[in-house]
C-alpha cells in the first residue's frame, strides 16, 4: 500500500469513528445483579428492546444490551451488562471483565421471594469491592404485578435501601411499571456524580481528534465516556 493510501485510510478511520461518537454525549456502563430468577434479563430486554419475554432463560455468564436515551438535555448511549445470578459465575474471569468500568448498578430482588431479598446484601458486597467512591447503586424490587403474592413490604425494602444509601423502586417487567424510571434514575445519579451541570454551563465537555499537531485540529466530538 502506498504512503498516500495509508494516510487516506487513517483519515477515513478517524472520520468514521468521529461520526459514530458524535451522535451521543455520554456513554454509560451499567450492570444488573441479583439472584437467578428475579427477572434481571427480562428487565433488561424490556428496557432495551421494549418487549416482554415470559420464562426468559437464565443468563449463563454475562449478557449485555445497548439502549440510546435522551435525558436532561443529553444524548446517552447506555450499555447494560447482565451478570448471571449463579454464584459460580460471579467471580469467574468473564464476570471480572464485565465489572470493569461499571459506574451504575441495579441490585434486583423478587418481592415474592424472601430468599432473593435476603441475598441483596451479598450482591451489594459483591459489587462494593470493585467499585470506586462514585459508583451509584439503586435497589429494585421486581414483579410488582404480583403484589398479592409479595412477601417483602415496600417499607422494609425502602428501609434497607436507605441504610445502604441507595434509592428504592418497585418494577414490573410485565406491565412495564417503573422500568424506564429505574434506568433513568440510575443515569441521573451517575451524571450528577460525573457530569454536574453548572447553572452557567451550556457547553458539553469536548474531546478532539487532532492531525498535524496543535494547529491541525480536525474535528471535535461531544462524547464523554463514563465507565469505558
Automatic annotation (TrEMBL):
Highest taxon of the lineage: Eukaryota
Protein name (record): Uncharacterized protein
Keywords: Membrane, Nucleotide-binding, Transmembrane, Transmembrane helix
Pfam family of the protein (one): Ras
TM regions (residue ranges): 6-22
Amino acid at each position: 500500500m502506498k504512503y498516500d493510501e495509508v494516510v487516506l485510510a487513517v483519515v477515513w478511520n478517524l472520520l468514521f469513528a468521529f461520526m459514530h461518537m458524535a451522535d451521543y454525549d455520554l456513554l454509560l456502563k451499567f450492570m444488573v445483579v441479583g439472584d437467578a430468577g428475579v427477572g434481571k434479563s427480562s428487565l433488561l430486554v424490556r428496557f432495551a428492546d421494549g418487549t416482554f419475554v415470559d420464562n426468559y432463560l437464565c443468563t449463563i455468564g454475562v449478557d449485555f444490551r445497548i439502549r440510546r436515551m435522551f435525558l436532561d438535555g443529553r444524548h446517552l448511549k447506555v450499555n447494560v451488562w447482565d451478570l448471571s445470578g449463579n454464584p459460580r459465575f460471579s467471580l469467574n474471569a468473564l464476570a471480572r471483565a464485565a465489572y470493569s468500568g461499571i459506574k451504575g448498578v441495579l441490585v434486583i430482588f423478587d418481592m415474592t421471594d424472601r430468599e432473593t431479598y435476603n441475598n441483596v446484601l451479598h450482591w451489594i458486597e459483591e459489587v462494593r469491592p470493585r467499585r470506586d467512591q462514585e459508583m451509584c447503586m439503586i435497589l429494585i424490587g421486581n414483579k410488582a404485578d404480583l403484589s398479592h403474592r409479595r412477601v417483602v413490604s415496600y417499607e422494609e425494602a425502602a428501609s434497607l435501601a436507605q441504610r445502604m444509601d441507595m434509592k428504592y423502586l418497585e418494577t414490573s417487567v410485565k406491565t412495564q411499571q417503573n422500568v424506564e424510571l429505574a434506568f433513568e434514575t440510575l443515569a441521573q445519579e451517575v451524571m450528577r456524580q460525573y457530569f454536574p451541570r453548572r447553572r452557567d454551563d451550556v457547553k458539553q465537555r469536548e474531546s478532539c481528534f487532532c492531525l498535524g499537531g496543535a494547529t491541525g485540529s480536525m474535528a471535535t466530538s461531544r462524547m464523554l465516556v463514563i465507565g469505558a
